[in-house]
Amino acid sequence: MIPLTRAQLLLLKQDRKLLELSLGLNPSAMLIDPLYVKEIDEAFDNFWLPNTLAFPDKHLWFTAWEIVLKSTNTIIGGMGFAGYPNEAGEAEIGYMIDANHHNKGFATEALKLLSQWAFTHDFVQAIIVHTYADNLPSRKILDKCGFSLINDIEGLLTYQLKK
Question: Against a cut of 0.70, is the pTM above it?
């Protein structure tokens, strides 16, 4: 997994292929659900770019982490935090995997890695993930990673993994 710097985020916004080549990766041909494309576009302008500028010393909590498949040296998805952990020590994570690589265990592996990294910080007490009730693949990933369902508000589920 590669956490992107602000400069790398700007390059990604300009052209994914340029970012991948700058990282020494093979260009990907990711298939991304249109819902996630919209979320990613909004994240650039409303989250990643302003927050990596405002909080440069905490940028790892405000950036995109690219998931790299080592066997092909390509990016197969992204993951990241919804900001710095709250006062209760909860860090929220979101993720997206290239449709070409669904059901292969990559999201599970990446979520475990990013959760483990977060838990290396004393102030992080839990990881939170939101998903929809009908998103069965995501729910399966959360179950595999040891998350517990803690809330359901009109089909939006909240899962938690405690330290």
Answer: yes
Q: Which two tokens stand for residue 40?
A: 């990613």
pLDDT digits (tens, 9 = 90+) for 54-94: 999 999 999 999 999 999 999 999 999 999 999 999 999 99
Q: CA–CA separation, 163 vs 159, rounded Å?
A: 13
Say if residues 4 and 47 touch (Cβ distance below 8 Å).
no
∠ Cα 62 46 27 (to 5°):
70
**DSSP class of 163:** -
Q: What stretch of H or E contains 26?
A: none
- DSSP symbol at 86: -
Classified as helix, coil or strand, 131 is: strand
DSSP character for 44?
A: I
CA 49 to chain centre: 15
Number of H helices and E strands in the chain, helices first, is: 6, 7
Q: 93 with 55: CB under 8 angstroms?
A: no
3-class secondary-structure state, position 149: strand
DSSP labels, 78-106:
EEEESSS--TT-EEEEEEEE-GGGTTSSH
Structural contact between residues 75 and 66, judged by C-beta atoms closer than 8 angstroms: yes
